[in-house]
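Fold it.
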Amino acid sequence: MLKIEAPYLIYLGDTQIPEMAKTGAGLAYWRPERCAGQLREPGCAADLGLPDLDLNAAVQQGVKTLVIGTAIPGGQLPDSWITRIVEAMEAGMDIASGLHSPLRSIPALDKTAKETGRNIYDVRLSHGPHPIANGRKRSGQRLLTVGTDCAVGKKYSALALHRELLARDVSATFRATGQTGVLIDGQGLAIDAVVSDFIAGAVEALAPSADDAHWDVIEGQGSLVHPAYAGVSLGLLHGAQPDAFVVCHEYGRKQLSGFEDHRVGSIEHIISLTEQLGRIVSKEIRCAGISLNTSSLSEQEALNAIQEIKEQYGLPVCDPVRFGVKEIIDDLLSKES
């Protein structure tokens, strides 16, 4: 499992599209205490609201890692960015990236890393070897977010649930399984980079045995009904061995994102599938609630939708962005064994 050292300096480059800095924005929102500042080149249109630092100022503030916080259209790093990353390593920083193209594949960066002894963390790569799953019952408690589709809020929901548990002084750990989650938390693994035979074993190692009162909140991926990504979702479910799960759904979405010939899973179907398949490794698995993405609705429409789903399924329903996850955690802890 990767472990990336903080504090971070978030590198935004010279991007002209603020929305391309989603990774940096996630870091600044969820882990501001890990972010010392941002580094922007002239003309950069993105701004995370963090202090602007150059490399010298960042070193003086004890920054350990330069994190690439901006996606690169086309996947190729501009030459000027390569130069800046080289300078960061020469200044004593490690480098972390969630880009599809490994930074280690760029000769100048690989050469500098070897010469300076700095680490390059390409979090989209598999950092094995990983064990085969054993399926044996583990101590501690685990909560997994599952989805009716991709990109419905599984990461955001897991982070919100984890934050609420900590706010109540409950022992809890967020377990990242995607590249942005790993960068946000500084540790974890990108599960979609793991060879399929080892997915469940990798997740067992990611969320090992713990004290009985401890909760691991595990970030979900894909969907059990997705024609492309169901394999990752199933391996993640079996490795997580969850005591409870939260279904994430975008209100009003009808087709799978990018797969218009396929409908999204219904909440009812996802609950049934998750319980049926999850019982292979967790006999008492249960649905603890529904995380509803209401971003396309007005606030009153969102409240109405939440009430509608709550009445339909008899479960706590929350929009973690607008209203938090208090009701789900209330229910989760009230039924804690």
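DSSP finds eleven helices and 15 strands in the chain.
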